[in-house]
Amino acid sequence: MEYQKRKVKIILLYIISIGISTGTFFHFFQNKVPVDVLAHQKTFKPKVKLARINDLKKLKEKLVKKEISIEQFEEMFDESLKHSNLREKEYYKKKKALVKDHTLFNFSTERQFTFMFFLILLGLANAFLAIIANNNRDKELKPYLNKALLFTTSISLFWMSWVFLNNIINQNNLIYLFMFIVASLISAYLASSLIKKVSSKKLKIQTLVDFTLRVREKHYPEVGSKALYAEIHDKSLKNGKTISEISDEFEDDLLSTLEKVVE
Predict the structure, then answer these.
(1) N or C: which end of the chain has fewer CB within 10 A?
(2) How far apart are CA 89 and CA 95, in angstroms?
(3) Phi, psi angle pair for 27, to nearest 5°
(4) Which residues contact 125 (CB under 8 A, 6 or more apart)?
(5) Whole-model pTM?
């Protein structure tokens, strides 16, 4: 039963860590610009820019052919410019409305929201995994926690690299994406190994220091008090633990400390 529970925990752990980590790449499959916004943007050139140029060309032709006077040209030019400005305002008004339709939690597109959501969630998951791994007492589950933490850390390092090297990565998405993910995985492994090694040394030193304090404050005073009593009264102290019990406790404490230091 315990094995099945641990197995479920491991599967859920991997699903969550991999799901959140790969979620930061989901935005690659979303449109940078919504389809309807993009379609509207394509209408700017023919309906606004070229329409303005064509109106001016027609006015120029009429002026050259002397179909209109200078005064009429000026009047018609102002009228044409007015209509052109109205078309341009109408274009941007509609664009703004379309963009607003795709706004999600104050992000201009669903793509931006997806990326930022999973990126922040990745940092949160990384922190939770680190806390759980640090406080976990299940030695069989701990290696799997560390592997999940290693994976989420490597993806975090990838996005850290992307912040400074996004131009290089975007030159060839497949090659550079793979290359930087592998490099981040290796970096995360090396960093994790170094931290684990340093933490292990500190923990061993702390364990030895704690044992030394216990010897001075607990084991030694118990033996010393009995020895002093026996020396003064020429008989053993009957109250409290016997020398044999104190010796056994000391031996158990010593063996337990050595196990923690050697492992």
Answers:
(1) N
(2) 10
(3) -65, -20
(4) 16, 17, 20, 152
(5) 0.58
